[in-house]
Amino acid sequence: MFGYYFRLGVRSLRRNPALTALMVLTLAVGVAASVSTLTILHMMSSDPIPQKSTRLFVPLIDPGPVKGYTPGERPEDIQITYQDAMNMLKSGQGVRRTALYGVEASVEPPRREIAPFNMGGLAPTRDFFAMFDVPFDYGQPWTEADEARAADVVVLSRAMADKLFGDVNPVGRRLNLMGFPFTVVGVTAKWKMLPRVYLLQGGSPYVTGEEFFIPLPTAIRHETQHRGGMSCSSNVGPGFAARLASDCTWITAWFETASSGDRGDLQSWLDSYAAEQRKLGRLTRNAPNQLFDALGWMEYTHVVGKDSQLQTWLSFGFLALCLVNTIGLLLAKFSVRATEIGVRRALGASRTEIFRQFLIETAVVGLVGGVLGLLLAFGALALIRMSSDSMAAVAHMDWEMLGLTFVISVGAAILAGLLPTWRACQVTPAIQLKSQ
């Protein structure tokens, strides 16, 4: 019976091509607007590392002074001090630990046809690559011995390695970085984490990846300036050593635990550590020590802004407006078929069968509108990708959103068709037959 009603619906739509086209276009525009904005919100708020996001934790300790502090207020920065980061690396907590900050370095390409340029990268410790599942095309991360002696070694992204050395394995070759000869020890495969949850300072969280990695101790030895924000509650003396000893926050630390259930133990250690530091005269605010998993960290740092959420709600409001127009068109369409409904009712069709027939007809409108809406959504996302690099990284539709497009379209059409279909079921056969 479904197939029969489906064919009736298609024939009915063909009888009124102009009205059908107007309904399909109205629905398609609403679906395209809502799906394109929902796709961007979906990509922005997606779990960047779902296989272990509940086992990765970032600590937050407030080292600011008591003066001007109101208990319970949000910390001024989302990073920690260098000395706290180093203590956490030495703590032995979790199965892996890393501390990192964004860096920028000048590079002298070995290929003479390329002029020197600056590239952006990261200065983490070795565990970073295993913690965030960074794949490698060539080589591997630097060794523990390299990290311990702050060796001049570098890991390049695949795109940067191809630019500097061509399509060859560059492991073992030298590269002048920051005026010093660095040895290439590895090349990462094409890898990007969206959003870039491991470092939410120094640019958009939706950049396509780091161009190079150097060991954190190496960056400190070369006094490499950070790329990103830094917050200081008091004046810092001159020199890089003064920054390291200060309470300026400019480092991000991460822990990886064996299971999500180890969070309580890690929180207990963090509280104990803060208590010990207070005995040394630090952390005088006595603010709560916070620990966030990956998704919690995204929420706390407002990775997805309220403006993006508002745009999504507005797009669904536009879809609702399109549905109101579709309801009006369906009412007009079904009203002129009152005679047909009266004849079917007189021949024995029940109200349930009439309801089912017209509801399937509206579903056909939704299906066609979904196909057109999907094409319009792809076009809208293509235009959005042209607006900025950040948007280019997130304005992509995955299979989940592809299926949701048809669910929204057909569901919206059925919702719009409920009132017209119910009105069609109320047709009295005797009155319609008598008027003919």
From TrEMBL:
Regions crossing the membrane: 313-336, 357-384, 404-425
Gene Ontology MF annotations: transmembrane transporter activity
Residue stretches making up the ABC3 transporter permease C-terminal domain: 315-428
Signal peptide stretch: none
Topology within the bilayer: Multi-pass membrane protein
Domain of life: Bacteria
One cellular component term from this protein's GO annotations in UniProt: plasma membrane
UniProt KW Glycosyltransferase keyword: no
Pfam family, one: FtsX
This protein's UniProt keywords: Cell membrane, Membrane, Transmembrane, Transmembrane helix
Record flagged with keyword Ribosomal protein: no
InterPro entries the record matches: ABC3_permease_C (IPR003838), MacB_PCD (IPR025857), Macrolide_Exporter_MacB (IPR050250)
Domain MacB-like periplasmic core: 20-225
Subcellular location: Cell membrane
First-listed, main subcellular location of the protein, grouped into a coarse class: membrane
Protein name per its UniProtKB record: FtsX-like permease family protein
Organism listed in the record: Massilia cellulosiltytica
